[in-house]
Amino acid sequence: MGYRTNEFKNNSFEIGKKNLQYYISTLLKEFKFTHAFFPKVSSEYPIEKLAYKFNSNKINYFNKQIHSNNIVLGSKYDQSRRIEADGIISDKSNQNIWIYTADCMPILFADKGSRIVAAAHCGRKGLEKKIIIKILDAMKNLGSQKKNILVAIGPSISKENYLVDEKCLKDFYKKIFNEIDSNQLIDMKNRHKNSKHKYNLDIREYAYKQLINNGIIPHHIDISNKCTYKANSEFFSWRKEKNSKRNWNFISSK
């Protein structure tokens, strides 16, 4: 079950005298969803200032991300405190949904029929805890049809630059497949082996598989070819820099 990556479109706007770059998915743009994947320079500005360039009258929401499968509905959001969660679903108009990333995948969901949108911060732990599936189920409960859901996965770490040890790889496969036999594990280890003690892990591949296996149409999935580790001059990468700085990403409800 292969996937392909695409070159996301580069746009920009001015803040003060500085030209600020950002990326958009052509798939989401085609259906007129306001969104952006920002590089590291975005961290210099509050999200309210970034959002104003897109929507001046919308409320901004973001969580305290903890690598969980917790999700929050926009209508249940508490502006007075940051909720511990890694996904937000817009169930009202005038909501800007923000997530921050640095190697993990920023995943934006958009229903072209109902116009419901959602966002998830998802890395290896998010895949293990199946946050993608949880968001799809929650969107369905709100009235979305999976045949109408579009998904854009922004800049994240690539398979070539994400190395894990054998225990981490075993734990990952056991959790995402629930159960795995020894022959499957040997095949997977051989496929991902990088050196004697390290293995490549492709989080994009397994995000794609979870989406496809849960009813999302393949051509409704758009994956950025930008690797945050490789393009570290442009994006924050936790594995490269080992600091707390993050890239902002957002999608706006109708």
Q: How would you characterize the overall build of this protein?
A:
Helices cover about 25% and strands about 25% of the residues. It has eight helices and 14 strands. Strands 5-6-9-8-10-13 form a six-stranded mixed sheet. β8 (about 105-110) and β9 (about 115-120) form a beta hairpin. It is globular and about 55 Å long. About 40% of the residues are buried. The mean pLDDT is about 90.
Helix/strand layout:
Blueprint: E1 9-15, E2 18-24, H1 26-30, E3 35-37, H2 47-52, E4 59-61, E5 71-73, E6 87-89, E7 95-101, E8 105-111, E9 117-122, H3 124-128, H4 131-141, E10 149-153, E11 163-164, H5 166-177, H6 182-192, E12 199-200, H7 203-213, E13 221-223, H8 238-241, E14 247-252
Name its key features.
254 residues, alpha+beta, 6-stranded mixed sheet, 14 strands, globular
Helix content: 25-40%
What oligomeric assembly is this protein in? single chain
Order of helices and strands: EEHEHEEEEEEHHEEHHEHEHE
Beta-strand share of residues = 25-35%
Mean pLDDT: 92
Unreliable spans: none
The number of helices is 8
Distance between the termini: 33 Å
Short description:
With 254 residues, the chain is α+β, with helices and mostly antiparallel strands. Helix content is 26%, strand content 25%.
